[in-house]
Amino acid sequence: MTYKSRLDGRKDNDLRPMEAKVGVIPNAEGSAWFKIGNTWAIAAVYGPREIFPRFLANPQKGVLRCYYTMMPFSGSGERIRPGTSRRAQEIAMVMKESLAPLVDLSAFPNSVVDVFVELPQTDAGTRCAAISAAAMALAHAGIPMKDMVSAVAVGRVDDRLVADLDYREEHIGEFNPDSHDAPVADTPIAMLHASKQLTLLQMDGELSKEMLLKLLKLGEEATEKVYQVQVNALKENYSSE
């Protein structure tokens, strides 16, 4: 085992510092930003509103659409090219699937709720930050919700199981020469607070069954910490109003 301590000094179950705020975009029905470490996601919700093109309408319930964009100079690695990419489309789809079990759009047939997320700064965990920010923005917009979803990445660096990997841990060989052969696995998860239902589980890397089960337990504890930050931001907004 070559990765004996985390590069930023955190304990294995520690998350990076988090901040959150809602009501940050005045002309949106709902909005929020969520920061974790140096990753910053800003979400805006528009709707329910009439959907175009009309053939996308669902006469039984509203449609949820998600959009994800990283700003050109936001990345910790290579420069992000402006415009839509396959990765952005994939993460937008992941966001939609993660948020869909959360919202109840049955009262809005033939309508659409659009969720836009932009990231001005990133340092790993972007899809998780985007999901957490989007969930807060939906709540701020007054969209009927069955629960709150919180997202965070857990994973493996060498034989160490850790919560909330940052960019340096995802690319450990570049920053710690002693760990250039260390296996790394990144596992983003999103979890509903009350039911503990997973709405997102992905994996980049190799894990044993035993490691995955331990990471899911670690992820449950980590998403609870994210949830507390989300709820505190919503409470602060409504208490100030």
Question: How does the SSE layout of this entry go?
Answer:
Layout: E1 18-22, E2 30-36, E3 39-50, E4 63-70, H1 86-99, E5 111-121, H2 126-140, E6 149-157, E7 160-163, H3 167-170, H4 172-175, E8 184-192, E9 198-201, H5 209-240
Parallel strand pairs: 4-5
Antiparallel strand pairs: 1-2, 2-3, 3-5, 6-7, 6-8, 8-9
Question: What do these coordinates show?
Answer:
The chain has helices spanning 86-99, 126-140, 167-170, 172-175, 209-240; strands at residues 18-22, 30-36, 39-50, 63-70, 111-121, 149-157, 160-163, 184-192, 198-201. It has a single domain (18-240), classed as Ribosomal Protein S5, domain 2 (2-Layer Sandwich). It is built from 5 helices and 9 strands; from the N terminus they run ββββαβαββααββα. 43% of the residues are buried. Strand 4, helix 1 (86-99) and strand 5 (111-121) form a beta-alpha-beta unit. The model has no long low-confidence stretch (mean pLDDT 92). The strands form 2 sheets. The protein has a 5-stranded mixed sheet with strand order 1-2-3-5-4. The chain has 241 residues and is α+β, with helices and mostly antiparallel strands.
Give me some keywords for this one.
241 residues, alpha+beta, Ribosomal Protein S5, domain 2, five-stranded mixed beta sheet, 29% strand
